[in-house]
Amino acid sequence: MAQDYVKINIGPSHPAMHGTLRVIAETDGETIINAEPEIGYLHRGVEKLAESMTYHQFIPVTDRLNYCSAIPNNVAYEMAVEKLMGIEVPEKAQLIRVIMMELSRISDHIVCVGILGVDIGALTPFFYLFIQRETIYEMFEWYNGSRLTNTFGRIGGVEAPLFPGFEQKWIEFKPELMKAIDEMDKLLTHNRIWMDRTIGTTAFSAEDALNWGFTGPCLRACGVKRDLRRDEPYCMYDKFEFDIPVGKYGDVFDRYWVRMIEMYESIKIIDQAIEMYKALPDDAPLMAKVPKILKASEGEIYSAIESPNGELGFYLRGDGSDKPYRLKIRPPCYMVYQAFGELVNGEMVADLIACLSSLNVIAGELDR
Length: 368
Hints:
The protein has one domain (55-367): Cytochrome-c3 Hydrogenase, chain B, CATH 1.10.645.10. Helices cover 48% and strands 12% of the residues. The protein contains 15 helices and 6 strands. It has helices at 46-49, 59-62, 70-85, 91-120, 124-144, 166-188, 192-198, 206-212, 216-220, 228-231, 252-278, 332-337, 340-344, 349-359, 363-367, and strands spanning 6-10, 22-28, 31-38, 299-307, 310-318, 326-330. The two termini are 39 Å apart. The model has no long low-confidence stretch (mean pLDDT 88).
């Protein structure tokens, strides 16, 4: 009987909810009969704020979208403005963007995989990889003084070349990073308990994922080989050699596995980008020639990148002034979270937490 079901609130203040997320679940014992995600606890009116800020002033606001990987959010917005205004970014600046975005991808995946382990009960991997995440944040700090919310880049390029000794720092750090990923792989991938908790849990088909609007690791986890870096290249990604890992069933295990392999691929991209950067003259430009006060002519564009969570897009409409007439963000988390209720129905309550963690929902990006 429906009246015998127990209704429980999961979040918005529970640590396993990864931010201000709330799920209203009806349960029959430990089984979820119905789950309704509630969206909007962290809504800050970001898109409306853009209408009263100049194109430059809005860059720091994009830090506060996916705060686990702010740099791709910065670059995605800057690229949208550059597309609207017809600005061509110098090659050297594009390579710096690639290096920093791939470091951010590794950092973001470390958070997702590490916290997934914690949520399921495997605390050790968290410590293995978070040491490496700290080193990545140090590299960000050495570049522009910020660690988490970076305000990286400028419209038309980047603010500075790579700091002296960056390559040497990467050479020293890379073996440590790969060793930590390898150890995580040995600890989890073939661990019997881990496999029992993740394989087949909240799986979905490629058809469902496409209908829901999934992108990024969650889409690739069910076998769809879609990656904007390869399919709609930007920032010279068409010049890099890298693989696009895919899963098969879309379950928690495949979402974990895809992110694990993607970290190795990001390392390959960074290696190539550094070599291409070194081949450029020291005095190669970092900024396109742009006026101090940017004014976009009337028009509208949509620009997107492959952020760590999937397709992150910005729709911009200019009206001839120095402020956007309209800005709309297409965050990957929103598409993922709106399907959350369907994914967890019929699963156990403990699997709800594992599902949310493997989807990597970030409240700042979701609610905006």
